[in-house]
Amino acid sequence: MSLEPSSVNPSSAASASTQALSIDVLVSVGRHSLTERPRRADLDARALELALRLRDKRGAQVNACHVGEGGQQAGSDTEAALRDYLGMGLENLTWIDAPQGSDALGLLDEHLRAGQVSAGPRLVLCGMRAEQGEGSGLLPFLLSESLGWAYVPAVVEVEDVASEDGHWYTTVLQALPRGQRRRLRVRLPALLGIDSAAAQPRQSAFGPARRGRIEQRQLEASVMADESLANWPLQPAKPRPKRLKIVTATNARDRFKAAAAKAESTGGKVLQDVSPEQGAEAVLALLKEEGVLR
Amino acid sequence: MLNTLLPLLLLAVLALAVVGAVRRIALWRRGRPSSVPVLTGLMAMPRRYLVDLHHVVARDKVFANTHVATAGGFVAAAALLLVVYLVPLPGSVETVLEVLLLVFSATMFVGARLVAKRRRHPPARLSKGPWMRLPKSLQAFSGSVFLIALANLGLLPEGLISGVIGWALAAVLLVALGLGLAELLLGMTWGGPMKHAFAGALHLAFHRRAERFSTRKSDREGKVHRSTGLKALNLEDETAPLGVATPEDFTWNQRLGFDACVQCGRCEAVCPAFAAGQPLNPKKLIQDMVLGMTGHSDAAYAGSPYPGKAVGEHQGTPSGPIVVEAGGALLDADTLWSCTTCRACVEECPMMIEHVDAIVDMRRFMTLEQGQTPGKGSEVIDNLIATDNPNGYAPAARMHWAADLSLPLMRDLGQADVLLWLGDGAFDMRNQRTLRALVKVLRAAEVDFAVLGDEERDSGDVARRLGDEATFQRLAKANIATLEKYRFQTIVTCDPHSFHVLSNEYGAFGGHYRVRHHSTYIDELMAADRLSLRSWKGGSVTYHDPCYLGRYNGEYEAPRRVLTALGIELNEMQRSGFRSRCCGGGGGAPITDIPGERRIPDMRMQDVAETGAELVAVGCPQCTAMLEGVVDATAQVRDIAELVADALISEDAAGKERAAKPQVVEVSP
Ligand code: SF4
Ligand code: SF4
């Protein structure tokens, strides 16, 4: 660490304030898994949560946008879900009108290109996949391709945004299987797909949700029909029945014990009567196998 | 000298008191508007004071007499003093009044001595500070007035009123009277302990729940006065405020009510959250609201603090936020979320202050505007929004517990005598046993009943207590719309929370129903001889009054009658009836889960243990869950419905005296 930060890190303080970080969050309409009532989509809400934290932490400017069928706005399912996002503390949100059966890709591409106002750093956050429609999780890949930006999936945390040698970078944590994390440095502008392991979204409050403005936007030039979708047969998903664990307990205490019992673990090895060295080796081997150590 | 200086002193004090009154009233009026009938209120005030307020004060007999002597003596003495010294009167009248003055000041003096005695070793619930000097002021006033009256009647020995001694005595009397007047008259409007008299009188007159008070008519009809439903927020108007963020967001008569507090600490003594060491003390909460009006810090507060929070670290501003996330403002959020809304404080408050209203008002802002419902609060609210039940179960699973009971559905029948409201306990394995027992009882009495089945939704109780008025109103309206489709005479429920909401809070949205708690309904069935029951064989039993049945709805007797009719001799807990201690399950407290030093249900089970009872009878799913969750309890927890169902002599086997086994319910063909 140098004692003269200015000579080492010329960008940080001054330019960070003049060149505000601009974050676009792509939000979709979610459905409750049991009742199918419209609401904010969980992953998109987590993306918005990360953006709002960056807003609180370093004054980022947060714009949220939704692409979807317009039409009767007030009282529609879409409006209800969008108001859930507004209730998290947004003043306004853009709703880009997409006629039924059209592809969101071109619309988002145009909207995001038009959103470039300054030379400042730029991030786009979205949930890794939508809760309805195709829900393939492909959209961010296609979008990053058409914009020519990087895409990082499974992001759980945006740690920092800083510039170096005239370029902006962000440091993010990416979720890997079994709770592992990988720290990545990504050059901006970039798209980040937010994972379900990211921080829980904040509560959506009634007051701000009701006050927030939804701005309708028409981008007719970019409307394209989604041909592949038109050719796919769609049918509702059916949940698989789950076998219930039957507990025969007559009092509260036994019921509690049964409910709180840990699941039996499978696999693995039980080491007994081994020397410390053997034990340490076994642990080391496991860590290597899991890829925690290299 | 006395007779020339006294009128001047009185006039000056009066004038200053009026200035103080105008200033204080202006301070209250900085709150939000609230329309109350001013003249009617003022006219009803004496009765509210003498009947309703005294009714609460009289629960402490000794102090009630003390207060009557002191306050009554003071009011009469002060009035006489003003008349005698400010109004020119014929000599004979004056003598009569002087004699009366003598009597009343003597009465007051006796009262003041008793107050002083109580203050010598004050109980912890009383505030100290300026309150400790009040008995002295009372004695100074009454003593000096007594001596002045004596002197004027010529009853003092000549040696005391002439010469140097006379002058000295006059000076001493004037100073004492001056000090007394400053405390008792100026203090009423300028602050200090006597503020409670002035604010209290107006608070009674302009109380926002006028229904709470008795009237001559209600007395004649023998009605009990109760007003416990929360007031609805206006959600139609998008500019209407959502709850209370700053001291000025309270209505002016709420602010006035805060000022009426006498810091007697009766609320503190009964508050379960305070006793559990959670950071709440209803007395301090009200005092903080007073400090907020003037923007003071709580450094001068001289009562018990919020457990675990030092005094002097909080300060409010008149129009600044009451709660800020970092702490240090008037209150911390965990104080508001510790309350179980048990209403013990309101029931006990001699000044008729509405603590629960204030707490819920502030919670509303935190939930509706800030989205800061703590603990599992936001999850529960999300579940209520998405699934109409607090735990997020599939609405279609609401009737799974009764798959083998073939319960009649309103949807199929369209009408029935009784609509059995199940409540969210239908999803809870423990409460399902209660429900099955209740169904068994209803069938044994051949009641014509039906359930809403999947059409029922959460009543909205918990959403409302968590401050989510929007979700409450949505659920209320949806339930009212459902109930509108069917014809029934009575709603019966085993959940006092649903009971309260259905009968006291749906009215504001157009839902007016005749609702009965199952204990009341079973009591009616027994009175009509529709149940044949064996008598109780078990050990000793006590009964726990649910807050939402007892204090909220005044039903203390029916459950006891049912238990007695079973042949149970109740072993009452020390705190029972209107003084029952909360189980800790109300107001969303188990959801927000603010840590304390103890758990409220543990304390309640300790109360049970003290009676030596082997079984505690309850009438609420929340109480059952809370009390049954106590580890190593000495008593079993059973719902009244279960006890009755166990005692049923089934028709076919009546002769053999064989009772149906518990938890087996006949399936109707
Ligand atoms: S709020 Fe009521 S009960 Fe509590 S201290 Fe004040 S006057 Fe007494
Ligand atoms: S309602 Fe109950 S828990 Fe809340 S402040 Fe009053 S006594 Fe305490």
From TrEMBL, chain A:
Keywords: Electron transport, Transport
Gene3D superfamilies: HUPs
Source organism, top-level taxon: Bacteria
UniProt keyword annotation of Lipoprotein present: no
Annotated ranges, domain Electron transfer flavoprotein alpha/beta-subunit N-terminal: 29-228
Matches recorded under Pfam families: ETF (PF01012)
InterPro entries referenced in this protein's UniProt entry, alphabetically: ETF_a/b_N (IPR014730), ETF_b (IPR012255), Rossmann-like_a/b/a_fold (IPR014729)
MF-aspect GO terms: electron transfer activity
Family statement drawn from the similarity comment of this UniProt entry: Belongs to the ETF beta-subunit/FixA family.
Name of the featured protein: Electron transfer flavoprotein subunit beta
Organism: Halomonas binhaiensis
Automatic annotation (TrEMBL), chain B:
Sorted UniProt keywords: 4Fe-4S, Iron, Iron-sulfur, Membrane, Metal-binding, Oxidoreductase, Transmembrane, Transmembrane helix
Domain 4Fe-4S ferredoxin-type, first and last residues per copy: 252-282, 327-358
InterPro entries found in the cross-reference section: 4Fe4S_Fe-S-bd (IPR017896), 4Fe4S_Fe_S_CS (IPR017900), Csal_0991-like_N (IPR021872), Cys_rich_dom (IPR004017), HdrC_iron-sulfur_subunit (IPR051460), Helical_ferredxn (IPR009051)
GO molecular function: 4 iron, 4 sulfur cluster binding; metal ion binding; oxidoreductase activity
Entry's transmembrane regions: 62-87, 99-116, 137-155, 161-186
Protein name, UniProt field: (Fe-S)-binding protein
Highest taxon of the lineage: Bacteria
Parts forming coiled coils: none
One GO cellular component term noted in the UniProt record for this chain: plasma membrane
Keyword flag Iron: yes
